[in-house]
Write a structure and sequence with these properties.
With 275 residues, the chain is mostly helical. The chain has a single domain, classed as Methane Monooxygenase Hydroxylase, Chain G, domain 1, CATH 1.20.58. It has twelve helices and two strands. Helix 10 runs antiparallel to helix 11. The radius of gyration is 22 Å and the shape is globular. The N and C termini lie far apart (72 Å).
Length: 275
């Protein structure tokens, strides 16, 4: 007897011996991962919004690491595709805030005590994304010391050049400039005038340096979406809790607003005023 049902347009109907959609995606485990600690209706929204955000961040890390590897191997075309995908991932993450903003302050207050001191500030994946991109505040590593695997992953990232460092090295090589002195791999990236000058040469003659021109724009596009995500985070938090301190102990909105001032690729923004 055939496993394919003519009444269902020939779709396979019997999966007693074969892998199904749910099997492939591990949906039993995924859909059992939501475990509210209160009876509040809106806690489910809060959990799912953050869990799905972590899944998107996992994909962003996968793409960023591969893009960096491709850049180091000279395969810029592949890196462009991956960087464009990460920008759209952050666009997707932005949309998630729209759903969370349907929750009112009263609804959040009903389950906030259940969070204890847990906070998105403690997300090791978000921190890893920042480290990969070049915003490397190693003092925050202590937040993750209680989770050996996450700590080791972050520690390993600090031993690598950031994605932007790799881009700058490509830029220096193109113009036969020596790599920057020292080892900036494990520190926050700060604006370097000489780097801005090189990017300016790219922007002043894009046809002669089209690959670097496209790389620059892919990086700006990525940071543009990343900044929007940060901005929407601030407005969502302010809308729901005002200026209360965060559950993790940060200053909440005030802290998040400071993060809006961080530039991941500063020379690519400042060069615009120099052209």
């Amino acid at each position: 007897m055939s496993d394919f049902d003519k009444a269902s347009d020939g779709a396979k109907m019997d999966f007693s011996k074969d892998m199904s959609y749910g099997d492939y995606l591990g949906l039993d485990e995924v859909l059992k991962a939501q475990k509210p600690l209160s009876d509040a209706h809106d806690e489910m929204l809060f959990i799912i919004q953050h869990q799905t955000s972590e899944l998107w961040m996992r994909l962003a890390i996968h793409e960023l690491e591969a893009a960096r590897e491709a850049m180091m191997g000279g395969d810029l075309a592949s890196a462009f595709k991956m960087l464009a995908r990460v920008a759209r991932i952050f666009d997707q993450l932005n949309s998630a805030w729209d759903v969370l903003r349907t929750m009112t302050p009263s609804e959040y207050t009903a389950f906030r005590p259940s969070l204890g001191n847990s906070s998105g500030f403690q997300s090791h994946q978000y921190r890893l994304i920042e480290f990969i991109l070049g915003n490397r505040n190693s003092a925050l590593m202590k937040l993750h010391k209680h989770r050996a695997q996450a700590f080791a992953r972050l520690e390993g990232e600090l031993a690598c050049p950031s994605l932007y460092q790799v881009a700058v090295n490509l830029l220096c090589t193109r113009f036969e400039q020596a790599p920057l002195a020292g080892n900036p791999a494990a520190t926050d990236w700060k604006h370097v005038d000489a780097v801005q000058d090189l990017w300016q040469r790219v922007y002043e003659d894009p046809r002669a340096h089209w690959d670097l021109y496209e790389l620059a724009e892919k990086l700006v596009d990525l940071e543009d979406y990343f900044r929007r995500w940060r901005f929407n985070h601030v407005t969502t938090v302010e809308r729901i809790i005002g200026f209360k301190r965060g559950t993790g102990g940060t200053a909440g909105v005030s802290y998040l607003r400071k993060m809006l001032e961080v530039e991941l690729f500063p020379e690519l923004w400042s060069v615009r005023g120099a052209l």
